[in-house]
Every structure is written in C-alpha cells, then in structure tokens.
User: What shape does this take?
Amino acid sequence: MKTNRRRFIKNVAGASAGILVSTACTNRSENKNNVSKAPAIHNKTKPIKASHDVIVVGAGLSGLHSAMLLEEQGYDVQVIEGRQRLGGRVYTLNNVPGKPEAAGEFIGATYARMVNTVNKLGLELYSPEDNNGPNRPWLYNLKGEYITAANWESHKMNPLEGEDRKLLPHRYLSTLSHRDNPLKDKPLDEWLKPEYQKYDIPHNEYLRSKGYNEATIDLMNVIIHSGGMHKTSALNELRRYHVNSFGNGKITFPDGKGWKMVKGGNSLLPEAMANSLQNEVHLSKTVIGFKEQDGIVQVSCADGSEYKGKNVICSIPISVLRNVTFEPYITGVTKEAIEQIDYGLSVQVHFLIKEPYWEKDGMDANMWTDGPLERFAVRTKRNENDLNAGLAYINGPESFKFNLMTDEQVFNYVEQKLAEIRPSTKGNLERLMVQSCERDVHGAGDWVYWQPGQVTKFGNHMRKSHGNIHFAGEHTAIMQRGMEGAFESGERAALDIILKA
Assistant: This one.
C-alpha cells in the first residue's frame, strides 16, 4: 500500500484550520515502550491472515473520523459497533418532541475538524434558540424555598459578596471555577505540563484556597459533572473551562454565532460519515477481547464473530475496557488507567406535558434545585406544532441512585419528587423515555473526568498504543474536549497507523 504522508498531513492540518495535534500524540518511541513485555504467542502451523488493514471498534465520531481518514489513504477499513445504532454519545432523540440531543449537543466555532466534516458531507448547521441550555431562565428552589432570578441578588441565601451577588447559582461553577484560571491564554495542551500538577487536587480544596465558602461550593456541586467536588481534580475543571473559553468572542461562525447544531439532528453527522465509507458498519458487535499474534490483531465479539486486522483502532470508553480481555495483557500505567478512570454520570427523564403547569401556579416553568431532581426544564419548541415536552436532568452524585432502578421506578421517583416541590405537575406528565449514557453498557457515562492526582499519573499515557492496538476517543484528546476531542483523537490514531507504515 502506498500513502503520501506529506500530502495527508498537509490535508489534515488544513481541515483542522490551524488547530494542530501535539507532537506528543504521535511519538512512536513512546508507543513502542508501552507494548506489553509478555511473550508473543506464535502459531507454528500457519500464519494468521488479516481480513482488513484496520478494524475500527466503535462507530462514534472518533472511530468514524479515523476510518474516513484511513480510507482516503487507501486502507481497507472495517468499522464495528456494539450498539444497534451509529453515533455513540451523539444521539438525537427523534421520538421526543423537539428532537433533543441526548449528549453531544452544541458544535462550537472552534470545532474545526467537525465543522469541516459537516461541510464535506453536505449537512447544514443552524443556530439554536438562545433560551435553550444554560441560557434558559430558571426558577430556583433552594432548601425548599422558591427564589426568582430577580430576587436572588438580595436574598438571604445568596452566599457571595459585592458584585458577585448578581451572579446566578447556575453560573457559579462555570464562572467561579474559571476565575483567575492559570491556563488562561495558554496553549490548549498546557494542562499536561508539570508546573500545573499542583492543581491536580480536589476541586473543593482548590476553591477553598481561593476564598469561597462552603455554601458557595455546595451550590457549585449541584451540577458538577463527575463524582462530586471532592472526587474531581481542580485541573480537570480548569482545563474544561479553558477549552470552553478558547477563542470565545474571537472565533465565530460567519454569522457571528459561537455555537451551532446539525439541522435535522446531530445524529445525521455520524450517519453520513458511516454512509461515506466503502465498507458498511457492522452493528451489534460488542467486543469482548483482543488477541495479537504474528502482527495480526483478532477482535472477538459477544455474538461469536471475529475480525482480523493488521491494526486496530479502539474507541471504546476507557472504563468499559475493564470488561474486555487483552492478549498479550495490558500492564503498567495503562492497566491502572483502565481500572481507575471514570466518566461523568447523568440521567435524563423525558415527559410530555399535558397542560402548561406554569400557567396554573403562575411561576416560571424551568426549575433549578438543590434537591434530588436538580433541574426540570421545558424543551424549547423547534416547530409551532410540537407538543410541550420537559425533562428532569440529574448529573453527578445524585444520579448514582438511578442505576439501581428500572425505568418504571425512575419515572415513579421523578414524578413523586416533582409533585412534592411543584404540585401543579401532578398528573400532568406523560412518560416518554429515560436516557442515560452510563446505563448503556457501551457508554460508561457522558464524558471522562479526571480525579485528583490522575492527570499527573495518567495524562501523558492515554495515547500510547498496545502493540498494534491504537486507542482513540475523547478521553485520549489533549487539545479539545467533547465532540471535537473525539475528532482530534480519531485523527491522531489514524496518523499513528499511517506514520508507522
């Protein structure tokens, strides 16, 4: 097989609009050092033959992007996916009024790889309503008391002082965590440098060192997308808001907007990516093991099927890899990372709203609480004929309990708690669906988060290959996060294969 490496790298750099992958991502000497020292198993009868050049495990954005790049260079690629659908954590809920996104939602103006792929595949982007997501107006219920946004500045429960009293509770985490961010105006991979390891401590400890009181930290903890402030590295949060603010106000779409969505639903993107491939993606292929022998990787699936490739790109979430066997075994720091790294948890409970309950009690429709339901929001209608729909959205520590419930128990619990704090909702909700990436055996959670000490321990090891198995997924990205992080990781994994050829 012949590949023009120089032309490929030039094309990738152009598609990324100047957002380059760090040289640390493609350090071939690091990859070689990470190969397990367990003895290779040799077939003494006849050599194993590969059925494809590359097997890509996972039909999310990272896997599909790497497959597209490799095919452009002449590689024979087969993508397999454990779910019965494409897209991974990009999942448009087409059966819910308004077609909300279950996870990957907004496409930033700095998402160069993603936007380039959208344009290349002929999809259309549009600007969502400003009152969706974090910009929607909230009615606060704190310690059982309703407080309007207009009353918050002067309210006795407001724990801040001076001008900060104007800051609304749902903005605490994003604003106060990012204030005086030591990563500000630094390159996006700066967080992995040794001088920032001093921030690899519990986030609540970091906030106390900045002078914030416990009441403020408690309100920030309501929406922390992890196992809680004490289980989250401050460096994780500093990096998260550093990436989110990168290019803020400076890099926009041509219409001046900072965020877009795919018209018709974000799921149309992974579907179009899969349709562009020469080989059809194989669904319902849950991978249970990898075995490398004589330079060929055999991928075994739960249904008994097997695939063989000269290389594998594995985009399975890192915590799900705990359920997958490797031969030769994974050892050392990579093994520890698989055993210890977790993903942020959340659950969405979707309802139809029979009658506008907010017209009955005269209060704002959307609730932000410090109770067990955290948030209940009414979806903004995309079409006038859409029915009213709402969802309870719970993340972090409060979402743990839902893993112990059936869907019916989840609905019962949410309806009961809603009726307690908002009686006008009682009997006014029709059940639609429960959505949780963590409850999906292939999903692990919403996105990876780093616990205290983990950036120091694992941050520079996530991109190392294991023999001919190359790891991708947003948990391996160092520049971007979320959907663009997935694209970055797929690009790097494809480059690793091309550059070693």
